[in-house]
Amino acid sequence: MNPPPRFPLAVLPTPLVPAERLSRAAGGPVWIKRDDLTGFALGGNKARKLEYTVGEALRQGADVLVTGGGPRSNHVRAAAAAAAAAGLGCHAVLYGSPPAREGANLALVRAVGARVRFTRDPDRASVDRELERVARELEGDGARPYVLPRGGATPVGAFGYALAARELAEQLEAAAVEPAAVVVAVGSCGTLAGLAAGASSLGLRWRLVGASVSREAVECRRRTLELARACAALLGGPPPSADLIEIVDARGPGYGVPSEEGRRAAGLAARTEGLFLDPTFTAKAMAVVLALLREGLGGPAVFVHTGGEVEAVTASEGEGSLAGVASGRGGSDGGR
């Protein structure tokens, strides 16, 4: 194994817990891997990835982190906080134009001292072009930037979730649980890729189900396998086979647009377990869990809770907020 350097951020291990009331309501056993409780910068899956991407940035002698996403991005919030913790500057590139009302994530990005730039283009890919432009400008000024793509989805970042697969496998063994499916929301593909690389390195034949919230299933599968195989090289393990990964198109009306299935899933999780899900990612992934159980999964479903509740809690006026779920309304744009 050739592990990248680690800059400690997350509080690990995160718990694996049975969701007993949700299981009864769903008609089958559900276990929840609580990666919403990683601790750093309000928790979520990004901390595991950032431990290694920030570690790599420091190893390379970088003095500023350049990353980007949407104006409500959980990744950008966590990356900006990680940069501050590591003593790095941070430039955050966000697609679109400045919103009339800034959400909590953007406020937190500014609070940790990151410099924010909008692309003025609604195309998410505009961030990728601007990241390179910002990096060149910084280099021209004598800085040493480290560019981190949207979502932090790199083989180095995925390494954090390869180790999470080992952590989860140990917890499942201790609980005597043999999962019929491990389900996780998929945006930029790094989390699922890391789980696949880790499972493959351990010889596990998990059914890894990715609930794709932003890409067509074919593209999501291709990108996940590409990242997983590159991550496996860091682990020194065998590359994951294509049949290890299953992608479900969970976009609904579109990325950042809540689905009716997701709204119902979030409401059920809140009422049965006091578990909060965001409308863009985890609510749609939980909807996939419930659908699998309805179809007759034949065993326990493990739901990897990747966090992201910040915008769901603070978007109090939107129908995607937790207040909207409680009142029976649908969801609003809660992208990350």
Describe this structure in words.
The protein has 336 residues and is of the alpha/beta class. It folds into two domains: 16-44 and 154-327, Rossmann fold, CATH 3.40.50; 46-152, 3-Layer(aba) Sandwich (Rossmann fold). The chain contains twelve helices and ten strands. It has a six-stranded mixed beta sheet, with helices on both faces. Strand 3 (64-69), helix 3 and strand 4 form a beta-alpha-beta unit. The protein is globular. Mean pLDDT is 93; it is low at 326-336.
Concise account of the structure shown:
This protein folds into two domains: 16-44 and 154-327, Rossmann fold (3-Layer(aba) Sandwich); 46-152, 3-Layer(aba) Sandwich (Rossmann fold), CATH 3.40.50.
Largest sheet: 6 strands, mixed
Percent of residues in helices comes to: 40-55%
Mean of residue pLDDT? 93
Spatial strand order of the main sheet? 1-2-10-7-8-9
Q: Specify the CATH class of the largest domain.
A: Alpha Beta
Radius of gyration: 19 Å
The unreliable regions are 326-336
> In one word, what is the shape?
globular
The secondary structure category is alpha/beta
How do the SSEs run, as a string of H and E?
A: EHEHEHEHEHEHEHEHEHHEHH
CATH topology title of the largest domain: Rossmann fold
Portion in strands: 5-15%
- How many individual helices? 12
Task: Tell me the number of strands.
Answer: 10
Q: Could you name the key traits of this structure?
A:
336 residues; Rossmann fold; 4-stranded parallel sheet; 44% helix
